[in-house]
Amino acid sequence: MRTTYILMLCLLAATGSTAVAQEDTENADTMTDEVMEEVLAEDAMADEVIEEDMAEDAMADEVMEEDMAEDAMADEVMEEDMAEDAMADEVMEEETPSLEEVAASDPDLGVRVNDEGEVDAMVMLSDVLFSFGDASLNPAALDVLAGVANKLSEVPSLEITGHTDAIGDADFNLALGQRRADAVRDWLIANTEFSADAITARGVGEADPIAANRTESGADNPEGRAQNRRVEFTLPDAG
Fold it and tell me: Based on the number of CB atoms within 10 Å of its own CB, is 30 exposed (0-12), middle (13-18) or buried (19 or more)?
C-alpha cells in the first residue's frame, strides 16, 4: 500500500515538472516573440526615418535644381542685356560720325591734331562765326552750326572752347573767348536737341595758339592769327 502511494507521488512530481518546463518554454517563446516584434518595430521606425531623410534630400535637391535654374535664367538675362548694350553701342558708333568726318562735310570746318597725330578737336574759325572783336553769331554761320549739331546729335556731351589771337589785352581776349563759346553753346541749346547739361563752354583766349601770331623776325603774322581765332568742339573721348 505504501509503495503504491510513493509511486503516485513520483508520477505527480514528474507530471508537475513537465508542466512547469512546458510553461517555461512557452514563456520563453512569448518573450522571444515580443523581442522580435520590438526589433521589427525599431527597424520599421528606422526605415521611416531613412525614408524621411531621403525625402528631405530629394526636396533639397529639387530646391538646388530650382536655384540653379533661376541662376541660369539670370545669367541668360544678363547675357541678353549685355548683348543689347553692345548692339546699342555699335549702333551709336555707326550713327555718330567722328569729328574728322563731320569736319570733312563742310569747308568752314577743320580739325586739330595732337602730338600723336590723332584728331582731338573740330575747329571752326571765329571769323566765320563772329565779326572782329564781337561775340554775336553771324547769320551766315548758323547753317554750319545746325549741320554740326545734326551730325553730333547722339553724343552724350560736347565741350566748346573759345580762342583768340594775341592782339589786345590778355584779359580782354580771355573774356572774349568765353563770350564766344557761350554764344555757340546758347544757340545750340536753343535751336537743337542738345540739353544744357550736355554742353560746356570755356574761354581760353590767346593762351593756346595753334599757329604763330608773329613771324620769327617779330613781324605780324595775319595768317597765323586767323588760325588762332577759332572755336573748338571737343567730344568727351577726344580729350
Answer: exposed
From CA 180, how far away is CA 168, in angstroms rounded? Answer: 16
pTM for this entry = 0.60
Which is nearest to 121 in space by CA: 175, 161, 166?
A: 161
**pLDDT tens for each residue of 141-168:** 899 999 999 999 889 999 999 999 999 9
- Strand 158-163 to 199-205 pairing: parallel
228 band by pLDDT with thresholds 50, 70 and 90:
very high
**Are 171 and 212 in contact, with CB atoms under 8 Å apart?**
no
Mention every residue, 6+ apart, whose C-beta is less than 8 A from residue 209. Answer: 163, 165, 166, 224, 228
The whole-angstrom separation of Cα 156 and Cα 236 is 8
> And the C-alpha cell for 16?
508537475
- Supply angle C-alpha 123, 124, 125, rounded to 5: 115
Asked whether 96 and 154 are in contact (CB, 8 A), the reply is yes
The whole-angstrom separation of Cα 220 and Cα 213 is 7
In the beta sheet, which residues pair with residue 230? 125, 163
Closest CA to 192 of 233, 132, 133: 233
